[in-house]
Specification:
The complex is a heterodimer of chains A (154) and B (422). Chain A is α+β, with helices and mostly antiparallel strands and 154 residues long. Helices cover 44% and strands 13% of the residues of chain A. Classes of the chains: A alpha+beta (154), B alpha/beta (422). Chains A and B meet through helix 2 and helix 5 of A and strand 3, strand 5, strand 9 and helix 13 of B.
């Protein structure tokens, strides 16, 4: 069951659109914000609520990079792997993160704290290499600086 | 030097509030526009020579005039704020530092085309821009610069902020419209074009953030003023940027037509110690490489095109002599292969094949004939063979890398290794 808060948030965004199923992506983002990810059951609940078939809605959900159809950790680290960050050495940051956290791309730490993902250009190329943790962007990354950043996310 | 787009921005990184914005002539362009007829506003923007700042460079006034006279309402204005072209970070600054400038441009554009509902399509990762735009929308509604009966003119406009869920193809304007309708972001067949059949089938104009930010200044100061800002036949100022191993990566508002050399050497401070400039992508990932012989090319639409590339977004990515051009091309093609929407075969199949060949070259497993295969791919991916501009854009850095850095590609095959990793 979608919670009252989830329904209310979806209804608010619905007011922006003349067509009910146009809210599909917003609705998926809203439930993901509440639940961390979108399970099959969640997907069906959202589909029912906005009047789409689960198959159509899953076609939407699987298209977008930042809708998670698998469980993720409490915090998601998204490391930019695009061209400016590549030139500025993001691969060293990736190796450091992988060995520090003991996970590769797409994996979650055993304590459920972090999921590590690659992401396309974050639009902060003047500060490359760059990553995001949840909604926060950090640039000018160094291994030493990374430790301090990760400490902020328990 | 006049810097209309960035001149109001605060040094500390905080956004310009509506009070500061209005004190610095903010919303005066909107006031002036509301006293003109929509046709007069379109004419002023057309006369200014403003061309789209998102990459394609289509004439803004001309685009607005493509909404058919007497077309039924609703009509929509959509701001393309899905800045996902690798190497590009200019719209982020405009939205984070001076959000009202964008809202004023959107209000004027909406008035000109007869739209009463407008959307900002913002990429998911721009969370600070989202918060600042929401705050600015609230301020503008309170000040009656948005909402009903704007500034007592009788004109109504509501602007909604939509944040995306992440996919490069959303920047293609018809894919963006599908995404805004809650669908998979596959591009649409054209014609019909969005000014005739757009969002939910209604007439729709899609403009880039920087384009819309120019509009209030053009209306307030006139088209002739905007033309005179430039150092070339293309009007206005432009946000230019540089990333890579330059001393001071960043963004600068400069006259259209500023030479590449001036941007790289003066504004970006030249190359870091120990590296030399080898080449550059002048306007994002989907533009052809330029090399040292092009440093005096003016950064404007005609100048960069004459040199064999495109102005694109105007934010350059610099390749230095210690960085492998084959590795850089692989990184670019990996991006395009991953972000292909999967709709048309030359794109999804051709780009993944391209990526595999480049990855083999980098691993030292390249074969004689690989470079010819890559050249074939650039022809399969050329304009006219694909549904949208993603694959032709992907072919641009590849074809020019093969031309300018041929000896590096050949060395990868000959030495069975990447010479930069030895």
């Amino acid at each position: 069951m979608l919670s009252a808060a989830e329904r209310e948030e979806i209804e608010q965004v619905l007011k922006h659109y003349p067509v009910r199923d146009s809210v599909a992506i917003d609705a998926l983002k809203i439930v993901q914000r509440h639940r961390g990810w979108i399970s099959d059951e969640t997907l069906k609940e959202v589909a029912d609520f906005i009047g789409m078939t689960p198959a159509d809605l899953d076609g939407v959900a699987t298209f977008y990079n930042l809708l998670f159809r698998k469980p993720v950790g409490r915090h998601v680290i998204a490391l930019c792997d695009s061209v400016s960050c590549w030139i500025m050495g993001y691969e060293g940051i990736r190796e450091y993160l992988s060995s520090k956290l003991g996970v590769g791309y797409g994996q979650t730490t055993a304590d459920g704290r972090f999921t590590l993902l690659p992401i396309v250009c974050l639009g902060a190329c003047d500060r490359a290499p760059v990553l995001m943790v949840d909604g926060d962007t950090y640039g000018g990354l160094t291994p030493a600086g990374l430790d301090g950043i990760l400490e902020r996310y328990r | 030097m006049e810097k209309p787009l960035t001149g109001r921005m605060r040094a500390g990184g905080q956004p310009v509030s509506i009070r500061e914005y209005e004190r610095a002539d903010g919303y005066q362009g909107l006031r002036k526009a509301l006293a003109m007829s929509p046709a007069e506003v379109i004419e002023e923007v057309r006369d200014s020579g403003l061309r789209g700042r998102g990459g394609a460079g289509f004439g803004t006034g001309l685009k607005w005039s493509l909404v058919p006279a007497g077309a039924p309402k609703p009509r929509y204005l959509v701001c393309n704020a899905d800045e996902m072209e690798p190497g590009t970070f200019k719209d982020r600054l405009l939205m984070e530092a001076d959000p009202h400038q964008l809202l004023e441009g959107m209000a004027i554009a909406s008035y000109a085309i007869g739209a009463e509902i407008s959307y900002i399509f913002l990429r998911a990762e721009y969370t600070l821009a989202a918060a600042r735009l929401e705050a600015a929308l609230h301020e503008a509604r309170q000040a009656r610069c948005l909402g009903e009966d704007i500034l007592g003119s009788g004109f109504n406009l509501e602007i909604h902020l939509h944040t995306s869920a992440g996919r490069y193809i959303c920047g293609e304007e018809t894919a963006l419209l599908n995404a805004l309708e809650g669908k998979r972001a596959n591009p649409r067949a054209k014609p019909p074009f969005p000014p005739v059949v757009g969002l939910w089938g209604k007439p729709t104009i899609v403009n880039n953030v920087e384009t819309l930010c120019c509009v209030p200044h053009i209306v307030r100061n006139g088209s002739g003023w905007f033309r005179r800002l430039s150092r070339s036949q293309d009007s206005g100022t432009k946000l230019f940027g540089a990333s890579g191993k330059v001393k001071r990566p960043g963004l600068w508002e400069l006259p259209m037509g500023t030479p590449i050399r001036e941007i790289v050497e003066e504004h970006a401070g030249g190359m870091r110690e120990g590296v030399r400039l080898r080449g550059l992508l002048p306007g994002g990932a989907s533009t052809d490489f330029l090399v040292e012989q092009h440093l005096d090319v003016p950064m404007d639409f005609a100048g960069v095109q004459a040199a064999g590339s495109r102005l694109g977004t105007g934010t350059m990515i610099i390749l230095d002599d210690r960085t492998c051009p084959v590795g850089m091309t692989l990184n670019l093609e990996h991006f395009f292969a991953q972000e292909s929407c999967g709709w048309c075969t030359p794109c999804w199949s051709g780009l993944s094949w391209t990526e595999q060949i480049l990855a083999a070259l980098e691993r030292g497993e390249g074969q004689p004939g690989d470079l010819e295969k890559l050249e074939w791919q650039t022809r399969f991916l050329a304009p006219g063979n694909t549904f949208c501009a993603l694959a032709p854009g992907a072919a641009e850095p590849l074809q020019s890398a093969l031309r300018y850095f041929r000896e590096d590609f050949e060395a990868h095959i000959r030495e069975k290794a990447c010479p930069y990793r030895h």
